[in-house]
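ping. complex inputs:
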Amino acid sequence: MSNRDQLIIFDTTLRDGEQSPGASMTREEKVRIARALERLRVDVIEAGFPAASKGDFESVRAVARTIRESRVCGLARARGEDIDRAGEALAEAVMPRIHTFIATSPIHMERKLQMTPDQVVEQAVWAVTRARQYCDDVEFSPEDAGRSDPDFLCRVLEAVIDAGATTVNIPDTVGYAVPEQFGALIARLRERIPNADKAVFSVHCHNDLGLAVANSLAAVGQGARQVECTINGLGERAGNAALEEIVMAVRTRQDALPVETRIDTREIVPTSRLVANITGFAVQPNKAIVGANAFAHESGIHQDGVLKHRETYEIMRAEDVGWSTNRMVLGKHSGRNAFRSRLQELGVEFESEQHLNEAFARFKDLADKKHEIFDEDLQALVTEAAQEL
Ligand code: KIV
Ligand code: ZN
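pong. complex structure:
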């Protein structure tokens, strides 16, 4: 048994991820993804926003009926009708959670809600109290916390924890935070809120500046014990923190991060593929962990190093995240060692060193003209080289 704290992985692919323009999912698709998330051993699945539409209500209800091993969560604004819809949609969940939110930044309170700070505190407490009538597990988020006054956040969070919120989530709704400052905000809230130890501190970071994962990890360093994230970093605008990056950073850098997750990392790539296929959002080739090139080596120096010892250029094992293996890509930067090794795998033996040299010279000529050299290209050029000699 390890003595590290558990980092709760809260996946919001089916809710915030679905807010990516063009990523809507049917009920059946949501259930398929929820099953994959359960296999991945995600702790909490945010299945949707039941008050948003009849379809989303049905999807959350179907996920709640299907999932046994993960908590199932529904989002609700701090309004009676939203909370009641979420409570109803989650009625058959084994472990239900209601996640309610209201904005706390000056711009959102004045311009969007047209409410005073006092009214926002009152509404937040009212919403949490109402949600607790449906379940014991209630999460509260002060929306746009990244641009809210920290003293006001302390006031709201203390009040909602008193009202029964078991998780308080700090969203960087517009991806405005930078890691050091965001980590310091979490430290300050945990220090200053007198009842902070009665709730789990969570973070929910958007990627507008490409800092969602860095901000989340800075928060973990300061005591956040739940991270909200999505598969492939899907989500509103530039997306949310990518689950696969958070999980593998925690696993790979145990020396720097004092937590562990329950995730079965071998399910990461299959889940990423499923989400990409269902949403139609292709994963960029150089995406960390799940991109096609994440474990591919093209340059001769790197290939030679990896063939001698994988850890020269790999900090994780491809197999540990669900790839069948790492990959040597033959292209114009590749060297003789990788070329020979690939041909050996294909069962090709060179009769002489001269034959290898001739084939390698032909390979380099072809590589200057083509992005990637495939096995068929190799077979052809080896035959041609043999005929030439
Ligand atoms: O980004 C955000 O603020 C949200 C909240 C609903 C948590 O998605
Ligand atoms: Zn969000």
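DSSP finds 14 helices and twelve strands in the chain.
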